Amino acid sequence: MTLPSSSPIRVLRTIQQVRQWRLSCLLNRESVGLVPTMGALHAGHCSLVSQSLKENDRTVVSIFVNPSQFAPHEDLEAYPRTLDTDMETLSNFKGKQVDAIFVPKISEMYPSGITLDVNKQKGAFVSVLGCSEQLEGAQRPQFFRGVATIVTKLLNVVTPDQIYFGQKDAQQYVVIKNLVKDLLINTNVRVMPTSRESYGLALSSRNAYLSDPAKKRAAVIYEALHTGEEYYNKHSQGNQVKSSEIIERIMPIFNEADFEFEMEYLAVSHPESLENLEYVEPGVGAIVSTAIRVPKENSDEKIRLLDNILLK
């Protein structure tokens, strides 16, 4: 992988370089924010970076396409890699700038090597039990093991005061919050609101696979979830609300969509444990989340889109 030479941002390639940089921040009593990404940066990533720049003295962004969260049948090599564009994006913040970007090689992050076949993997891996097996975890069994492992490695290397995630990947941040709590890691997990297109579609690197008309059709996902949210807000004034009633308000919006799609799940879950809820309790709230596959134009392939809303 060739790195751009003209970027004003300090590029760190090795763990040793990151630790030296972090030590200088520590000696200067400077707080550090980490925004972990797999690249293909969009406005949602930029909102996380902006928040870190506001809340910390120094900000580092990691770009690493993590192989351990891909299954053998998933095309790791097809994941978009746009490092030149990503570097340009990170160089164009107005005012306070990103201080460093961590772009490690696979061998740096997986010194024992890595294969996509879990049964053949060697070395240390991290599993967060109880909140990793359902929803996304049921569809992609090794995904959160891979996410938890790479985030643990990044936290160990960078030791940030704060680490930033978006609300769109709800289960991911629940897993990470439990990881940090249970492994006694001294960092604050910051979860920022989902960034959306003007018509409601949650921003995602996967959106790049869809045409503009397809993206606008896919906005029905947020429309449906928002309908469920409105129903809950109307009926939750001091009262429990049945999860089934929320889902009953959501599904007709999906059913009236003017394109074919596959729904993998639609769930109303506890905001910390992700257990399925029969009732949503005001003050406890819930995460209403879904994953659907929408058709890619001129292709048999379907693009998997995630979204969720928080009920309070």
UniProtKB/TrEMBL annotation:
Keywords per UniProt: ATP-binding, Ligase, Nucleotide-binding, Pantothenate biosynthesis
Pathway where this protein functions: Cofactor biosynthesis; (R)-pantothenate biosynthesis; (R)-pantothenate from (R)-pantoate and beta-alanine: step 1/1
Recorded GO MF terms: ATP binding; pantoate-beta-alanine ligase activity
Pfam families (alphabetical): Pantoate_ligase (PF02569)
Enzyme Commission code: 6.3.2.1
GO biological process, one term: pantothenate biosynthetic process
Superkingdom classification of source: Eukaryota
Transmembrane parts of this sequence: none
Catalyzed reactions: (R)-pantoate + beta-alanine + ATP = (R)-pantothenate + AMP + diphosphate + H(+)
Family: Belongs to the pantothenate synthetase family.
Protein name in the entry: Pantoate--beta-alanine ligase
Source organism of the structure: Debaryomyces hansenii (strain ATCC 36239 / CBS 767 / BCRC 21394 / JCM 1990 / NBRC 0083 / IGC 2968)
Lineage, broadest ranks: Eukaryota, Fungi, Dikarya, Ascomycota, Saccharomycotina
